[in-house]
Amino acid sequence: MTGPIARVRGNDYRTLRPEAGFTPALTVSVVVPAYGGQDKLDLVLAALARQTYPAELTEVIVVDNGSEPPLRLPGTAPKGARLIRCPEPGRAAARNAGLAEATGDVVHWLDSDVVLTPGAIEAHMRWHHTAPYLVVTGYIRFTEAELPAELPDDLETCFEPAEPHTWIVDLVERTGGLTDNPQRPFSLHVGGATSVHARLIAAAGPMDDDLVLGQDTEMGYRLSQAGAVFVPEPAARAYHLGPTMRMRDKPAIDRVSHAFVADRVPAYRWLRGHPGRQWKVPYVTAVVDGTAGYDEVRASVDALLAGTVPDLSVLVVGPWDTLRRERRAPLRDPALDLVLVEGHYRYDGRVRLAAAEDVDPAVPYVLRLPAGWVPGEDSLARLLDLARDEGLGLVNVLLSESAEGVVAARLERLSAFARARLVAGPGEDLDDVVDEVSGVTWVDGETYGFTTEAATPVGRRSAYRARAEAQAEAARLAKENERLRAQVGKWKEEAGRWRKSAVELRREVGTLRRELAAANRAAQQSLRTVVSTTMRRALRRPRD
């Protein structure tokens, strides 16, 4: 690949536009770890021999992970395929053994029970010819068809009906093909049929063979930290011969996997719900200059440790190896402030004193904070929310501005800076490239709670008491609310009775009105009768 390297923003690989008629130039190493299952392996290797990607650019490495009897390469295997042995048990160890032998520009992981359709590797490699930082995963379908003695020409007729890999399909569909700022695109890295540019693996390192399960996910996370873009490719189709172990017993598999992965993959926030635990890979590392003075360093570090982000480590940089403590006149020691910083934090499990900055590349975020500046209790959490929600690679925090210049803190997403270093040209400003591939913004430090006034950290017991008081008050208010609800219920019941009484009264009034009207009519009729009778009598009376 010559010329400038194509740049992708976030995980939106759609801008790469791979050509259907590309000219193959990159080599690919297909690594197939296997333990037993010679009948399935024979079909897998026969399918590799039928690939449309040039055979001279493809090497196949089968790793026998201690099978008894030992595995063999069948006559239908691709020309030049190699069989090596790895006695150390475990799929991660077997893959690493194959990786050590691989010479390709791209490494294609392939399980020994996954049969590729003829154009699968070509579909993978079409993407890899567009950029050197891609992880491409094909679409696997799970078949329970009876195994054929030989690989048929028509795989679909032989292996269908089959079930799709629903987890991957759902992940891709709900994230717009992993392009809608997904939080965990690295979850696409599954070892069954995934290809990775060798440059990325060199940066991320091999699989973690300390893990019992979850090696694919953990390596996918480290590939993401190295700057990877993850691409689902539906044209790279394959058939898995039978169900996977996860499909057979998912709850038990997840239970074991999560117990180990939680320590190594900070992006799985839902596995890190404990409010005070420390993890092998923290979510964020804060870097503070330890030479800035004891009071300034302590103000910044103590505020960070007391914040609402417990999943944090602090790296204090200074020449600690040069300290020679003055025993006779310690107060006149010219390095007294360094001695105080070193003595104050030497045994704190979340603080590390280092002579140079050496942040673990697996850490998602790094906060670079000038000593003496004090973040508020929730400042770091708010910055992390902003970076995550907006998919930003860098959040600059303006702390002060004067004629002497600008003082700022920086929250960096390490994966964005890794990508920027992969694609940056000579002399390019790295922040500008980060802005192009991920996004950069500035925020006001005062708005986010940064000051130069050291505050007394709120202790856990004080926080507990405040929480207990708040809970008691909430319980009291809830009880009062229930009392008022009951009172309102009584009022509603009384109002109902009043409404009923009012209706009855209206009915009685109506009846009385009708009776009164009838009485009035009767009285009037009686009066008319009396008057009429009186007048007739008067007319009949003789006149004088």
TrEMBL record:
User: Which residues belong to any copy of the Glycosyltransferase 2-like domain?
Assistant: 29-144
Stored Gene3D superfamilies? Spore Coat Polysaccharide Biosynthesis Protein SpsA, Chain A
- Coiled-coil residues are 460-522
Give the enzyme's main class according to its UniProt record, as a single word. Answer: transferase
Q: What is its EC number?
A: 2.4.-.-
Q: Which Pfam family, giving just one, matches this sequence?
A: Glycos_transf_2
What InterPro entries does UniProt report for this protein, alphabetically? Glyco_trans_2-like, Glycosyltransf_2, Nucleotide-diphossugar_trans
Q: What is this protein called?
A: Glycosyltransferase
